[in-house]
Amino acid sequence: MEKAQVYGKLTAIFREVFDEDELSVTPQTTADDVDGWDSLSHIRLVLAVSKAFGVKFSASEIGNLKNVGEFATLIEKKA
Questions:
Q1: Structural domain total, the chain
Q2: How far apart are CA 38 and CA 55, in angstroms?
Q3: CATH number at residue 34
Q4: What is the pLDDT of residues 30-53, one digit of tens each?
């Protein structure tokens, strides 16, 4: 899967999870950049991404992510 496809899908998932139609994500996007991105929404986000891409993540993989770019790279490796 190409990076552009990953980001397209991720943007749609972020918009759904955070109920924000205008939200766009970049590799540098962090939780501080998105209103409402707290621990509960983080879990919802990870579950939605896991389902959409058909991949599973370990707690340590998720815990080590610093931004959306790292998340996208992890998805690319697993998809």
A1: 1
A2: 22
A3: 1.10.1200.10
A4: 999 999 999 999 999 999 999 999
> Would you state the torsion angle of the CA atoms of residues 70, 73, 74, 75, taken in this order, to the nearest 10 degrees?
120
Mean pLDDT of the region 17-42: 96
**Token reading at 10:** 């991720």
Task: Find the distance separating the first CA and the last CA of the chain, reported in whole Å.
Answer: 7
Question: How far apart (Å, rounded) are the C-alpha atoms in residues 72 and 26?
Answer: 10
Q: What is the 3-state secondary structure (H, E, C) of the chain?
A: CCHHHHHHHHHHHHHHHCCCCCCCCCCCCCHHHCCCCCHHHHHHHHHHHHHHHCCCCCHHHHHCCCCHHHHHHHHHHHC
Full domain range(s) for residue 7: 3-78
pTM assigned to the model: 0.93
How many angstroms separate the CA atoms of 66 and 20, rounded?
22
